[in-house]
Amino acid sequence: MRLDPFSGPYSRDPATTWRRINATATSVSYDDDLEMWLIAGHDNVRAVLSDTTNFSNAATMLPITALTADAGNILAGLDAPAVAVAADRPQHLRTRTILRALMPTTAVRAEQQWGPLVAARTDDLITDMKVHEPTDLMHFAVQLPLLVIQDVLGLPTATAQQVRAWTDAFADLVWGNPTPEAQIEHAYSSVRLWRFCTDIVSGRVDSGHYGPGLIGELLRYRNNDDSNLTVAEVAALALNIVGAGWITTAGALGNALAHALADPGRWASLADDEHYLNLHVEETLRHSPAIDGWLRLTTADVTLDGVTIPAGSRCLVLIGAANHDPSVYAEPDVFDPGRGRAGQHLAFGAGPHYCVGAALARLELTTALRALARRLPDLALAPGFRQQFKTSAALRQLTNLPVQQHPAGRCPVAHGTSAGPRS
Q1: Domain architecture of the chain: domains with CATH
Q2: How many CB atoms lie within 10 A of CB 31?
Q3: What number of other Cβ atoms are within 10 A of residue 313's Cβ?
């Protein structure tokens, strides 16, 4: 079993690789090129993501591509404490409990707290779209979650584009294959993102005005008592949320839009059929997860599917392949919102590290899809569209999504002149 996550074919069509991996005799094997273990199979991936005893998160944010000494020295300045994504028990349990108390984790609570905010951002972005000319819909897919996460955290909107540049650089440093020169630039950007978070939090503490958003809520929970949370931990939580809170949702939203626009019937259903809307979102998360790989580190020798993985081994957990496991999903490569067991997908992980922002992500996806389909009923993929994802070992975000409006009955997709994702 081999994976070449930085190849052209994988960036164009990862599902073909997942199909090959799922057809191999073993779902656990060592990849000499990546120097890590690959773990596929729905049950295996769920077991690993749920097992925080034998599979540590300590290596989750260590770059896939080995850093040069210079880049590593620069990145050492990102000295944030492990609080969420890269934390293990008991620290992870402690900080996650705090986040769950402050963040809505159900659809009803997310709608109550964030629904008006998400709807307002969505409407503003649609209003600003130049729909009378060809448009890259990935601009919308990126800007919506980027602005929403700024609002949720209580960060100034004026910093959003700089935050985007820093987080894009950090994502490429961790999950991409940057050149030595790019590694240095990305390392500087990653440290700047961390310093931005620490400056925001420290400034609020020093002023005594904790301010709006989740950062303000965390500081009020802290109550000037380090035994509740330290200032560095609050900044690290902000870093985790701003780093993960928009880039993954942008990928998921782009994928959901591409699937919807590939079939005029789907696009029409999103406008008025709430049941179909929710099914479409869940099938997107299964079929085209925005995170299709994640890292773990074994803390002991672990036998999985008859294969023993030594202690101290880095493991790449193949979520995308797990979501296409033919033993769980019939015809897994087919996009079918009406399929059974779609809710068993692993797009948000599993176990103690299940994504704490899942309710917000689903709210953004449903709000955006509904509003776009209602306000732009004649939107269609531009002729000749072929999907291309950013090069990454884990994050699946379309590089562009060209669309244009067409009179009813003349959608190029309906006449077979455009190719979207395999459906």
Answers
A1: 8-405 (1.10.630.10)
A2: 15
A3: 19
